[in-house]
Amino acid sequence: MIEPRARILYLLSILERQTDEAHPLSTNELIALLRDTYGIPMHRTTVKSDITVLQNYGIDIEEIRSKNNQYYVPSRLFELPELKLLCDAVESSKFITEKKSAQLIEKLATLTSVHQAQEIQPKLYTDSGVKPTNEHVYYILDTVQQAIRLEKKVSFLYFEYDVSKEKHLKNDGKPYIFSPYASVWNGDFYYMLGYCDKHCGIGAYRMDRILCTPQILEENAVPAPPDFSVGKYTKSAFQMYGGHEECTVELRCENSLMKFIIDKFSEDVEITQRDTNSFCVRVDVALSPPFYGWMFGFGKKMQILSPVHAKAEYTAMARAVLEEDTTLED
Questions:
Q1: Domain definitions of the chain by residue range
Q2: Peptide bond preceding 290: is omega within 30 degrees of 0, i.e. cis?
């Protein structure tokens, strides 16, 4: 038997889950739902008085006056377009498994009426092949964030894939000892950013490449350098490829590439007009294969002006690719 004093809570639940502007419920319908669903008897005047209490508490409930008044909840914490956006983000995330995506979307659907919930199901086409299969990443992320709060080091095993698509442990199978400073979302993946004992410097590791939940050590984390900034480190589009030199690179780009520069480095990049057909831009990057590969996609439309060693390294990389291609043809 349901406690009669909980009546107003069940009334609120019905209004929040079953009504919206297009689907109000009349006084008689509310009485019937409370009686048939929860076994709670209710009088017409009690419906009005209970709704007034909820309104005085701050619940947004609209009344449509008639012989049989109708009521509905017009607004909620999240508006319908916001919920649609969140559901699309969950559905398209490469970090969230298909199973967990479905569970999260189902929970998001409870934040609106059952009628509007039908509209927030993702309509995006996503390649299920890019979704992860290991839900262990949630526990990895939680452990890393706990270590950050405690300012402790973590120990973890890190893997990569071999040519047979089998997991192969890096660092000769030995654990990495790491002082995490922040968890960073970059390029559809979560990274653990901090100080690596092995490399004696700042680095980043993809959390979905950590084999199992890291162990939080008793040892205090290595303090971040005084001039270290998570925002500055992650601002570079290629910083997440650790172990490579970081420097400021000056690029000459054809005018048609401006949208790609802004998409990659934001509108805050330092840009100067070189001539009527091109401009120069200075960006902070890690001199890594992903950076050079990104540049290579634009061909002659983008060139490195400085530093000299970055230009030489890029040229050598392009030449090596060309020579390899020639070898294969022979």
A1: 4-72, 80-130, 138-227, 246-329
A2: no
**Residue 145, Ramachandran bin (φ over 0: left; ψ between -120 and 50: alpha; else beta):** alpha
CATH of 246-329, one of 3.30.1370, 1.10.357, 3.30.70, 3.90.1720: 3.30.70
Q: Mean pLDDT by 10-residue block, N- to C-terminus, for the chain (330 residues)?
A: 81 96 96 93 92 95 94 93 88 80 90 90 57 74 94 96 83 96 83 93 89 95 90 65 75 94 85 92 88 91 95 89 59
For the stretch 44-63, pLDDT in tens is 999 999 999 999 999 999 99
> Which single residue is written with the structure tokens 């919930």?
117
Q: Which long-range contacts (CB under 8 A, 24 or more apart) does 223-228 make?
A: 224/181, 224/194, 224/195, 228/181, 228/202
pTM: 0.64
Tell me how far apart the alpha carbons of residues 321 and 313 are, in angstroms, rounded to a whole number: 12
Architecture (CATH level 2) of domain 4-72: Orthogonal Bundle (1.10)
Which 8-state DSSP code applies to residue 6? G
Residue 58, sorted as left (phi over 0), alpha (psi -120 to 50) or beta, turns out to be left
Please enumerate in sequence order all residues whose Cβ is within 8 A of that of 33, keeping only pairs 6 or more positions apart, or say none. Answer: 14, 18, 25
Annotate 127-165 with DSSP letters as a single string. -GGGS-S-TTHHHHHHHHHHHHHHTEEEEE-BEEE-TTS
Residue reference for tokens 């653990």: 192
Residue carrying structure tokens 């894939």: 161
